[in-house]
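Milestone 3.1: sequence recovery, worked example.
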């Protein structure tokens, strides 16, 4: 007890000292923001001490380090997460209480880092947490976006995008590293000439920007070595042009700086115009070039011989955005370090591995050759040569098979195919669920799999249970710690012990009491943030994903219209009082996605204000969904809607977070839903809809015609007619026509009408089951009990065993 008191006293001293020395304020004088920063800086100091010591040990011992390249890292708030991983949350909480402060109020001052859009970035963040927890040396690399995706506001029934200046008040967790800055070059011309040492390349008349890194330590649980998140910020080579300034041409005086710094200004600029596409290409080259330059420079300084680079570093390409790292490393090794083509390719081909995250061919990144050549002339030349040699190899393997070679080529039909570049060069190529792995082998990269079967594997995604259960769901975390101990925080396999509690009535009641506490917390948040009242005694049915047609928010909202019609016409169906919660952002340029948000809001206005329905069903759109909001929404969910068209969701991670928190899945056999089904058992999940095989069959023979189902099924017909018959007070004819008749694409591309009846039957069965409270609480607890497999620690362990082969740092920093 004395030791605990000493620790709390030390924490209070550190906080008060930070306020005095960092802000010149006493506790009584300090603002809420200053108090947050003082507390956060004390936590950062504890992490940074370990960070500096252990990173120097990695270099001294020569351990292999992972460079994890991703355009997104959706980190969420770090204050409480770091306290948990340092075993200090209760100590900080009590110390703050003794100072008259509330940890929850302090945490509210922290802005969510605007570094991602959705699952891709959240997965990358989970991976850094797990890499550190497993004591594996790793650096996550991306862009220090000044503005995040956007803040979503709902005005007059529509999504409005507001800038997300998340760095406005600074970021206490980051440390600038100007000593590691590098130059990134664009445009210009390439001249080749011969010397006694061989072919040389000169890059002339280029323009360039300076990439300055900012490092953030990412602390895993009980970790010996924090991971590093390195974010690159773009700065102009020169600041103010004094000639223009002194002539009064102030705009021109800062023009060069502004044009350079736009590169790290905004996450995912719209690419439906030429300037937007160029900016995206600049962004992806910017952070991959900066990272490769840093990696090579670091290796030379520590180990010398660049031919040993694959022994000390490995690079994971997370989706195709960072694929430019491959030709960029070739450029550095040849043009700056003097290696021959064969030597450079020998190193490069051992360095890279690629994770595919989509089966939708239109989402596989391609660049127009002319634009690419103008912007990155030397990199284009390297890609062209890689393609020539690769196609020559394919010709030896498949002589005369031009169709196959054309499909596999990297440069073809005036475009550069980044996925093909990754698969051609990378040592391992993985899907992110068992089903996804099968699809990329059988369909997406079938020709590559036939030629290089040894490259391909499946590693199912995972999420960090420390954030998504322990931090987000403290009532449930306390219950589990009381019943099975705290060992599951470090060893996810210990979550299997929950299975032994599924017949313990007291445990099950306490499990549902934790759920109720989370539902009340969500109701309070929605009332405070949006002014909407929700009854916590209703069933909470949640669909929370970025807005895309294949994720089928439209199916869900059409089904709500069906329930509305059923209630209005007194058709006798039993409907348990239910609150339907949607959370989604639509890309600003994605018109149909924004129409679906308008529809959801219109349906909310209809059912929430109709006296015949408002006490039975309610629709709530959760505004500006981000990580911190998800930590409130997910633990409160009773039902997890996972409605993607079978074969189109690579994995999903939201499905894992929901089931980890005791939500029961209603979904298709798609992505990781297949494995959730296998782990919880068919009796603890509600599955509906066409299988991948059924859909493949319909597409192969063109047998699906949604208009036939529309004519035969009055339920879907009535729901669809609401879009155009005035029921909603406005017309949604674009959505109506896209489903029944199609536009530039075939009708009902995502099989909403086909799956509607099956979904309705599954929903009816779910409602009946929910009404049996004894059955439901066992189902909910079973989902949490089976969620250990879906922890990111297991995923990272598989990557390391099968792909990276990193050596964990032991207590003394030895191998």
């Amino acid at each position: 007890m004395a030791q605990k008191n000493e620790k709390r006293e030390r924490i209070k001293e550190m906080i008060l000292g930070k306020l005095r020395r960092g802000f010149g304020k006493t506790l009584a004088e300090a603002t809420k923001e200053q108090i947050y920063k003082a507390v956060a800086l004390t936590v950062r100091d504890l992490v940074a001490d370990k960070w500096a010591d252990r990173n120097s040990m990695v270099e001294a011992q020569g351990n292999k380090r992972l460079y994890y390249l991703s355009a997104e890292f959706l980190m969420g708030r770090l204050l409480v997460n770091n306290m948990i991983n340092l075993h200090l949350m209760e100590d900080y909480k009590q110390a703050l209480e003794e100072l008259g402060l509330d940890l929850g109020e302090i945490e509210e001052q922290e802005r969510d880092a605007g570094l991602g859009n959705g699952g891709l970035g959240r997965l990358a963040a989970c991976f850094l947490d797990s890499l550190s927890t497993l004591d594996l040396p790793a650096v996550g690399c991306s862009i220090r976006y000044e503005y995040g995706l956007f803040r979503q506001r709902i005005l007059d029934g529509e999504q409005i995008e507001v800038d997300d200046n998340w760095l406005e008040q600074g970021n206490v967790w980051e440390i600038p590293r100007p000593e590691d800055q590098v130059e990134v070059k664009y445009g210009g011309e390439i001249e080749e000439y011969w010397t006694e040492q061989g072919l040389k390349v000169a890059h002339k008349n280029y323009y360039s920007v300076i990439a300055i890194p900012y490092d953030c330590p990412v602390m895993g649980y009980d970790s010996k070595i924090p991971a590093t998140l390195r974010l690159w910020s773009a700065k102009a080579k020169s600041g103010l042009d004094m000639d223009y300034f002194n002539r009064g041409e102030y705009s021109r005086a800062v023009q060069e700086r502004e044009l350079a710094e736009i590169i790290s200004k905004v996450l995912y600029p719209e690419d439906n115009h030429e300037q937007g596409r160029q900016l995206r290409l600049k962004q992806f080259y910017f952070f991959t070039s900066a990272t490769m330059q840093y990696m090579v420079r670091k290796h030379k300084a520590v180990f010398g011989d660049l031919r040993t680079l694959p022994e000390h570093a490995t690079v994971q390409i997370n989706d195709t955005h960072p694929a430019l790292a491959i030709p960029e490393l070739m450029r550095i090794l040849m043009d700056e370090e003097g290696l021959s083509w064969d030597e450079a390719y020998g190193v490069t081909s051992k360095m890279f591995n690629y994770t595919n995250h989509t089966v939708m061919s239109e989402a596989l990144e391609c660049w127009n050759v002319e634009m690419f050549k103008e912007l990155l002339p030397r990199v284009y030349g390297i890609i062209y040569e890689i393609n020539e040699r690769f196609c020559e190899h394919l010709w030896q393997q498949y002589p005369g098979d031009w169709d196959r070679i054309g499909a596999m080529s990297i440069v073809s039909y005036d475009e550069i195919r980044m996925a093909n570049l990754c698969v051609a060069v990378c040592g391992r190529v993985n899907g992110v669920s068992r089903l996804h792995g099968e699809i990329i082998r059988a369909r997406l990269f079938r020709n590559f799999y036939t030629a290089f079967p040894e490259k391909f594997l499946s590693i199912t995604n995972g999420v960090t249970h420390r954030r998504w259960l322990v931090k987000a769901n403290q009532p449930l975390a306390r219950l589990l710690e009381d019943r099975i101990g705290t060992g599951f925080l470090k060893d996810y396999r210990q979550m299997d012990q929950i299975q032994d509690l599924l017949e313990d009535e007291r445990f099950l009641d306490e499990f549902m009491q934790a759920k109720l506490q989370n539902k009340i917390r969500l109701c309070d948040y929605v009332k405070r943030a949006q002014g909407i009242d929700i009854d916590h005694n209703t069933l909470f049915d949640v669909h929370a994903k970025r807005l895309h047609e294949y994720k089928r928010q439209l199916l869900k909202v059409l089904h709500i219209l069906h329930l509305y019609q059923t209630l209005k016409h007194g058709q006798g169906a039993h409907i348990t009082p239910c609150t339907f919660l949607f959370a989604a952002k639509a890309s600003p340029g994605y018109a149909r996605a924004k129409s679906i948000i308008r529809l959801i809001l219109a349906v909310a206005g209809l059912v929430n204000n109709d006296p015949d329905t408002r006490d039975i069903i309610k629709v709530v759109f959760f505004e500006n969904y981000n990580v911190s909001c998800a930590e409130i929404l997910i633990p409160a969910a009773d039902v997890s809607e996972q409605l993607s068209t079978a074969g189109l969701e690579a994995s999903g991670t939201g499905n894992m977070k929901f089931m980890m928190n005791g939500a029961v899945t209603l979904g298709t056999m798609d992505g990781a839903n297949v494995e959730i089904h296998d782990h919880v058992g068919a009796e603890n999940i509600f599955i509906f809809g066409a299988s991948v095989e059924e859909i493949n069959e319909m597409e192969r023979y063109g047998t699906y015609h949604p208009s036939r189902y529309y004519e035969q099924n009055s339920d879907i017909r009535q729901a669809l007619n609401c879009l155009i018959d005035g029921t909603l007070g406005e017309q949604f004819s674009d959505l109506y026509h896209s489903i029944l008749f199609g536009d530039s694409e075939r009708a009902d591309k995502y099989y909403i009408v086909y799956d509607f009846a099956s979904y309705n039957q599954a929903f009816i069965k779910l409602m009946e089951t929910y009404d049996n409270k004894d059955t439901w609480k066992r189902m909910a607890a079973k989902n949490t009990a089976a969620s250990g497999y879906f922890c990111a620690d297991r995923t990272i362990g598989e990557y390391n065993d099968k792909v990276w082969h990193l050596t964990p740092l032991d207590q003394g920093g030895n191998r």
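The chain has 34 helices and 23 strands. The radius of gyration is 27 Å.
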